[in-house]
User: Which sequence fits this backbone?
């Protein structure tokens, strides 16, 4: 049996009506969002996507301050770290180092030197295991075992956790938060562990510099050579380098800001 013939203009009209209805619905949603965003009040509250929460990974810190942070993950690089520490000292900047416990056990003097120069010492886990492959209990043990070692070395309790391999999800961030940690990720990845040229590292970082950015790096020779031009670019933009923890503190202070 043949189907009933429908004029082509009827089909096109149906599609036109559907499109108009969809557009109208989108306009209603947009108007509601704009009205809520412009509603009068004494406080400007950050959108949930920007808000800092301890149980969520931190990729970037919402702030008006012209600050960026260096997050230096350390599980190797003994031959480069003394020169990197010397460079940071000459430049007068503090960063956040995230050593693993197995590395800190092997080079305790370098961990102490980090703290002595005013750098923040975070937690990269005792071993460089894949966090997603660990149970909650095993993940807690990996974090706490390193915490105990770092406290014994520098006399301060680390409160920032950088997951090995950058592996993170809601469960990992939750377990870390239950131990009192902020889970730190990054805004800009130098991918320096692949040992690219220093100029390539600079190209990856400088165009993306913006307030609140967290720049991930490792102690490699190309990174060491890339740091001077990166620091020069940061200063040319009127920005400063601060530890990740200081950046988070500033972001939390600005969670609710007075209306201009």
Assistant:
């Amino acid at each position: 049996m043949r189907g009933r013939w429908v004029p082509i203009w009827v089909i096109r009209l149906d599609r036109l009506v559907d499109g108009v209805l969809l557009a109208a619905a989108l306009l209603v949603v947009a108007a509601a969002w704009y009205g809520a965003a412009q509603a009068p009040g004494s406080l400007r509250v950050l959108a949930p996507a920007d808000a800092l929460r301890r149980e969520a990974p931190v990729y970037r810190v919402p702030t008006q301050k012209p600050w960026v942070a260096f997050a230096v993950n350390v599980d190797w690089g003994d031959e480069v770290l003394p020169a990197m520490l010397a460079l940071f000292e000459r430049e007068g900047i503090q960063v956040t180092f995230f050593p693993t416990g197995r590395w800190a056990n092997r080079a305790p003097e370098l961990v102490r030197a980090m703290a002595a120069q005013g750098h923040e010492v975070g937690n990269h886990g005792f071993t460089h295991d894949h966090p997603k492959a660990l149970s909650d209990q095993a993940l807690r043990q990996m974090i706490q075992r390193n915490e105990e070692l770092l406290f014994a070395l520098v006399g301060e309790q680390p409160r920032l956790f950088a997951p090995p391999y950058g592996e993170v999800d809601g469960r990992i961030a939750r377990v870390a938060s239950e131990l009192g940690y902020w889970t730190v990720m990054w805004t800009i990845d130098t991918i320096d562990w692949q040992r690219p040229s220093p100029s390539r590292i600079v190209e990856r970082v400088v165009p993306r510099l913006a307030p609140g950015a967290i720049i991930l790096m490792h102690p490699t020779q190309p990174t060491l050579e890339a740091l001077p031009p990166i620091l020069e670019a940061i200063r040319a933009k009127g920005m400063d380098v601060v530890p990740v923890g200081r950046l988070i503190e500033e972001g939390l202070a600005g969670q609710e800001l007075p209306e201009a």
